[in-house]
Amino acid sequence: MKRIISFLYFLAGGLLTFGQNPISPPGVYIADPAAHAWKDGRLYVYGSLDESTDYYCSHRHHVMSTDNMLDWTLHRDVFASKGENDQVAYSDALLYAPDCQYRDGTYYLYYTLASPQQTEGVATSKNPEGPFKNGRGIDLHGFNQIDPATIRDSIVTEDEHFFHEGGYLVKRNDIYGGVIIDNDHSDPSVWNNHGSVMMRKACVEPIEFNKDGSITEVEMPQDINISTLRTE
Q1: Phi, psi of 42 (to 5 degrees)
Q2: Is 20 helix (H, G, I), strand (E, B) or coil?
Q3: Domains: count for the chain
Q4: Strands of the sheet with 99-103, listed across from one edge
Q5: Is the pLDDT of residue 194 over 50?
Q6: Contact by Cβ (8 Å): 2, 211
């Protein structure tokens, strides 16, 4: 079986010692992570930002990056839908989970809004850590959704989607895999991909690919490993 790194998050309350699990420092609650290794050799994690125990998400995004999975850099305020560095002129809605892609020298941040109109949008930057500018809405022809999972590929088609929220799409050896937190029929009482009483933090765990292309289920992280954080 082959192993890669999977990014998860768990509900957390109070103060936690910063470590590899969770990868974000005390007082910074990054959830809904989407991880990409870009051409500079660093791994970048894009996610939503919890700032209150009364609601999830916020009006801004941070990005985290590393080149060794031990020492992490926190890139603060790379994008916002309200207040300082507001880049979404058409809405002041909260920012839900994002994702990012690269093409021809430009990084595209796909963001989602807590709004029934123009739910998804895209902003751009010449750097993987942002800042991302000029947010503009994406016309989804009435199919407004949140928590995008983006992939650069040839045509991908599906007849049905059974993800609930927080899905992550990967492709390996010509096999597409969906890494999901829960599915369409899960019990709301045990959802772990959103929280309003507690705030959430991103964690890292290895995942294993079986010979048939399937992915072994990943247990929620239990350990806390001390590492180093740098902020920009």
Answers
A1: -100, 155
A2: coil
A3: 1
A4: 99-103, 106-112, 120-125, 133-137
A5: no
A6: no
